Amino acid sequence: MKNLTRRIAAVSAAAFLALNVAGCSVTTGNPTSDGGGEREQKDEYRVAYIARAQADSFAAWLANEMKAEAANYEDITLEVFDGQADDEIENRLIENAIANKFDAIIIQPNNADAQLPYIQQAVDAGIVTVTTNPRVEGIDGASSVDANPYDQGAIVAQAALEQVPENANVVVLNGPAANFHGTARREAWEKEFFDQRPDVTIVAEDTANWNKDEALTLMEDWSLANPKIDAVISMNDNMASGALEAVKGKSGFDGMLAYGVDGTPEATLLIQEGTMTATSLQDAAELAQLNLKAVHDLLSGAEDNVSVNVGNPLITKDNTQEYIDLYKEAGLIGN
Amino acid sequence: MLSRLRSFEASRYSIFIILVVVLVAASFLSPNFLSGDNVFNVLRQVAVITILAYGAMTLIIGGMIDLSAGAVMAFAGVASVLIYKSSNSMLLAFLAGIAVGVICNLINAFLVATLHTPAFIVTLGMMLMARGAVLELTQGQNVLQLGDFILIGQGNLGLLPIPVLILLIITAVIWYLMNQTRYGRSVYAVGGNEEAARAAGIAVERVKYQAFLINGALVGIAGVIFMSRVNAGLPNAGIGYELQAITAPIIGGTSFSGGVGTVFGTLAGALIVGVLGNIMNLIGIGSYVQQIVMGLIIVVAVAYDVFSKRGRTKTTILKSAPPVQPPPSAGESPGALENANPKQ
Amino acid sequence: MSSTLLSVRDLNKSFPGVKALNQVSFDVRPGSVHAVCGENGAGKSTLMKIINGIYQPDSGTIHVRGEEVHIKSPIDARAHGIAMISQELNYVPEMTIAESFFMGRLPLKYGRVNWRYIRGEAKRVMTEEGLDFSGNRRLNTLTVSEIQTLEILRAVYHSAEILIMDEPTSAIAHKEVESLFAKIRALRDEGKSIIYISHKMDEVFQLADDVSVLRDGAIVSSQPAQETTSARVIAQMVGRDLDHQSYPKERVELGAMVFKASRLSRENAFEDINLEIRAGEIVGLAGLIGAGRSEVVRAVFGLDPLDSGTVEVDGVLVRTNTPKKAIEHGIAMLSEDRRLVGIIPKLSIKKNATLASLKKVIHGGFHRSSVEEQLVTEYFQKMNVKAPSTETRIESLSGGNQQKVLLARWLIADPKVMLLDEPTRGIDVGAKFEIYKLMTALARQGRAILMISSELPELIGMCDRIYVMSAGRMTAELEPHQFSQETILKHAMNQIEVA
After folding, report:
1. Positions of chain A with pLDDT lower than 70, given as ranges
2. pTM for this prediction
3. Contact (Cβ atoms closer than 8 angstroms) between residue C436 and residue C248
4. B72, B250, B301, C102: which is deepest, by most CB within 10 A?
5. CB-based contact, C232 to chain B, within 8 Å
C-alpha cells in the first residue's frame, strides 16, 4: 500500500517534470496584485492569459506552451487564469485583469459573442488585447492570433476528396452544439467535400461533444446498424480515435478511413500505425509563440496591430514521424 | 387475502415491466437490436455506469449521496493507467484504481460519518478536489499508449466481454452484500431511520464508512474499465457521471429519502437508460432528441413508481389508521400524569 | 327539518386486501356530541376521512339535513358545513394566526389578498373568545392546545355545523382539557354537532350524548350514552369482556440483583440517580413529564452521554456509552417515541424484529432465512401481532402492533434488563392488556424490567416497586403497601424534599 502511494507520487512527479518543459518562471492562479503600473516602456510587463478551460486538453496544452514561451521573454511575466468553460467566469476574469491593470491580456474566449463587450472594455482601458483560438472579430484596436478553423477542416476535406471511394457510406462526428471551431470545421467539410461528392452518403451524424468515450459509444452502435462504413469524418481527433476504438479488430472495418482535426499526439500515433488517415495540426506551440511575439511587439511599440494565423499543415502517414518527434521532444509522447 | 395481496405486488415489479416494454419496442424498431453482438455491445456500454450506480445505490439507501463519483472515477482511472505504464503490472494498476477510489471515499466517510457534515457538501468538495488532482497530475493532457491495459475494457473471456464479466461479478457481490450480510440489513435501517437504527444497536458510523468504502471500490473499478475501454487516460472523463449514476437507482425504485432500493431494480434502471440510448443510436435519433427522451423516461418511471406504490400503501393500511402518536409537544403538558387514566 | 343533522347509511369501503368499512350506518342529532369509539384499526379514521371527503366510499350514502350529498374533497365537506379538527394538527409553522384563520379561502380585494380585513376579522373573533393573541403571531409560537382552539374557532367562523374531533385530548394538558370540554359543550348548546373520536372512556362519558362503537369496520352498537356503560363499550370495542380493573400481575419470586445504576448524573437532565432491579422484578419509574425519566433510561442505554455514574449488570461494571454496547451487556430499551427511535418504517416487520439480533439470523457469511422466519413467526404468534405477512412494512401496522413488533425485537435479542419507556402509550385497550401479560411472562422468566409510565393505575397495577422522580432527582422509592395515586403524585410534584 505504502509502496503504491509512493509509486503514484513518483509517477505524478514524473508527469509533472515531463510537461513543464524548461524551468519556467511563470506563476498561475489568482493574482494579488497591488494594481499599480503605467502604460509606458517598462522593464517588466505583466501579461494575463485567460484560458478557456484548463480541463480541455487542447486548451491546457496551449496554456502550458504559453507558459513555456513566456519564459523566453525576460521582460514578460505571464499569469494564467482558468475560465472553466464558463462565460460568466471568463468575463469576470477579464474584468479582474482590467482592474488589476495588467499591461496586456491574451484572451482565449469561451464564447466570442459573450466575451465581446468585456474584450472591448479591455481595449478601451488602453490595455494591449489579443484574442486567440478563436479570434474574436469586430473589435477595433484588438489584435489576434489564430488558427483558422475553416482552413483546418478544409485541408483534411480536400485530402479526403481523392481517398474516399465511390458511393461511400460515411459517419460524421460533430463538436458541441454552437461551438465556433466545430461549426466552422463542419462547414469546411460541407463545402470542400460533400458538395463535390454527391455520391457519398452520410449514414449517421451526431455530436460527441469532442469526447472520446461518447464517440466510442456512438460508433459501437452505428457500426452495428451499418455494417458498411467507409469513412469516419470527425471534427476533432479525440472523437476520431474513439470511433476507431469501437471498430478495432472488427471484421469489415479494416480498411475504414478516419479523418480528424487538431493533430493531437494520439492522432499522430494512430496515423503512423495506419488506423487513422489524416488530420491537420493546430499547433499549440506555434500559437503560443505568435501570441507572445504579438504581445511583445505591441508592448514595445514595434507594432500597432497584429492579425496572424498559424499554419495548419496536413498530417498523413508520409509526414507523421516529423510530428511524433516534435511531441516526443515536448514530452507529450513517451518512448 | 394473501393471493390478492400478491397480485398487487406486481407494482413492485413495475420497473421490470418497463424494461420489458423497452426491450420489446427496441427489437421491433431495429432488426439489429437483438443480435448477439448488440446485446454484448449494450452490456459493455452500461457496465461503467451500472457499477457506479451500485455505489450510488448503497449510499442513497443509507441516506447519503456521492457527487464526487465522476471526478473520482477519472482520478482513479488515470492513476491506474499511470501505474500500469510505469509498472506494466495489470494487477498493480487495478489495485491502484481501487485504492484511489477507496481513499477519496474514506475521506468522504470521515467527514460525513465522523464529523457529521452533510454528504452533499462533502462530496461536492471531493468532486472538485479529485478533478483538480487528476488535471494537475496530467496537466490536462490525455495519457496515451496504454498497451495491454485495454484488455480489461476491450478483451473477451470466451464470448463474454471482460467488462460484462466484471459487471456480472459485481452485481452478484453487491446483491450478496445487500441481502445476505449484516451490513446490508444495517444500511437499509440506517437510511430508513438513523436514530432507530442506532437504538437497535447498529453501529451507524461504521455502516456509513462501509457504504463509502464499497462505493470507493466500485468507483475505482469503474475508472479502470472506463480508461481501458477508451484506450486513454482521460482526465476529463466522467463529467456528469455522478448524476447518471444516481439516475439508474432512482429509476429502479431506490428512494431518495433512503432505506429503500434493490440491486436488480438498479440494474434494470441502468439497462433501460442504456437500451434507450442504444436503440436511438441504432435508428439514427440525434442526441438532442435523445436527451428529451431520457428526461421523459426518468420522470415517467419515477412518477409511475410513486403512483403504483401509493396504491400499494393503501392496500397495506389493512387494519389500521396511520400510526398514531402524540406529537412531541405532549412533553410540554405537565398535567399528563393525571389525565391519563383509563381505569375509571 | 329533519331530526338528524348527519346521516350515514350503509357505507362500504375496501382497500385491496382488507374491508375497512362494512355497512356502516349511524346518525348524528343536531346539538349533540356523538362519540365514536373503537380500537386502533377499527375503521374510525377511514370513516371520518370519508365524511371529510378525503376518501370516497365504495357504496353507501351520506345525508346532511336530510339531503343526500356527495363529498368529493375536504372543500366539499366545508361547503356542507363539515369541518375536521385533525388528530395530528397540521399547520404551517411559519404562518401567522390571522393568515391561518383564512387559509384556503383568503378574501381578495381588487385581486389582492385583503390583509386588513383578515387581520380585523381574526382579531374580532379572538377578542370575542377572550383570547388576546396578536394576529401577527406565528403558529410555531403557540402551544398545541392554543392551535387546537384556533382550529375550532376557524371552523365555527366559517360556519361549520358538524365538527369532527379526532382524539383532541391526546396532546394537551389536563387544565386545557377542561377548557376544551367547556368549549365543546358551548358549541353543542349553540346547536352544533360534534363527532368525538376517543378511546378514553372517562372523556366519552363526560361529554357524549350518543355513543357508537366500531369494531373491525362495522358498527356494533349505536345508542344514547345513558343507556350504556364504559365497561360495556370497552367490551364491545375489544369484542370480549376485559376486566379493566385488574392487571394480569403475578408476584414472582425475586432473584439476584441484575441491574444496578449508581449516582447517575447528566447536566440539565438528572442528578444522582440510583436504580436497582432484581431478576423477576417489575420496577416503575413515575414522575411528571419533564422530570427526567426518559433521559435517565436514554443515558443508561447509551443514546445520550452520561456525565458521571456507573452501571452494573449481574454485579459487573459495564460501559454502555453506545446502544450497541448496552445491548451486548444485555440491556434493551423500548423508547417512548416509537416513530423516531423505534421503527424503521420502510422495512418489513420481520426485518424490524431481528434488527437488534442480526448475528442470530446472519452468520457464517450467509443469511439464514428459514431461521429468521421461524424465529419471527414464533414471537409474532406469542405476541399476537396482527399483520398480513412477515413481509409487511411496519409503517402500515397500527400503533399497538408496531409496539408488539418492537417488543419482539427485544425478546429475540434476549436481554437481561428491559427498560420500557411508556410501553402502552398510544395503543388500544386490547393491545395494552396483551403487553401487560407479556411483561408478566418476562418477569416470570427472571428478567429485570423497568417501566416508565404516566398512567398511574398501570404502574400501581403492574409494579413491584415504584421510583418517583421530580425535576431530575429521585424523590421516592415506594413499596407496594405505599402505592396510591395520591402518594405518587405527591412525590412527583415534590421539588426539594427527598423521601
Report:
1. 1-41, 335
2. 0.75
3. yes
4. B72
5. no
